[in-house]
């Protein structure tokens, strides 16, 4: 695999890992339990945690620590900004049930996109430019 392809793979895995981690953090608040079914929130958190561990192991296998830090810089910062906006929105809406419903739909959409990207990454052996 060429160096550029490997960096792209590291960035992709890093972004997917960060997406899971931020989602886990979002649903790890007391406010999420108040607005959503606690059993479903717990199942979601468990699933997110397991996937985070898988991505963390995958990232370690693909690149060393120095390169993985490089791969996380740009895309991860954008993702952090995205989730910061979600936290601000929830706070502005005083963590209302309606705000949580909107966020829940948004997170499902984002995780669905992440899942598609991960499947594509696995199918193309890390080359996201492949058809």
Percent strand: under 5%
CATH class: Mainly Alpha
Low-confidence stretches: none
In the CATH hierarchy, the third-tier topology is known as Growth Hormone, Chain: A
What is the approximate shape?
Answer: elongated
Termini separation (Å)? Answer: 16 Å
**Can you give the helix content as a percent range?**
over 70%
pLDDT averaged residue by residue: 75
Report the radius of gyration as a whole number of Å: 16 Å
Structural class: mainly alpha
The helix tally amounts to 5
Q: How can the largest sheet be summarized?
A: none
Number of strand elements? 0
Count of discrete structural domains = 1
Sketch the topology as an H/E string, one letter per element.
Answer: HHHHH
CATH architecture: Up-down Bundle
Keywords: Antiviral defense, Cytokine, Disulfide bond, Hormone, Pregnancy, Secreted
GO molecular function, one term: hormone activity
Family: Belongs to the alpha/beta interferon family. IFN-alphaII subfamily.
Subcellular location: Secreted
């Amino acid at each position: 695999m060429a160096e550029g392809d490997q960096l792209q793979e590291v960035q992709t895995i890093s972004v997917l890992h960060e997406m899971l981690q931020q989602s886990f953090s979002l649903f790890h608040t007391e406010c999420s339990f108040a607005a959503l079914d606690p059993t479903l929130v717990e199942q979601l958190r468990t699933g997110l945690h397991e996937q985070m561990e898988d991505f963390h192991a995958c990232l370690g296998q693909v690149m060393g620590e120095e390169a993985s830090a490089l791969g996380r810089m740009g895309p991860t910062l954008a993702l952090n900004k995205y989730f910061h906006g979600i936290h601000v929105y929830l706070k502005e809406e005083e963590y209302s049930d309606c705000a949580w419903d909107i966020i829940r739909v948004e997170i499902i959409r984002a995780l669905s996109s992440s899942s598609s990207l991960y499947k594509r990454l696995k199918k193309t052996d890390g080359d996201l430019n492949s058809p």
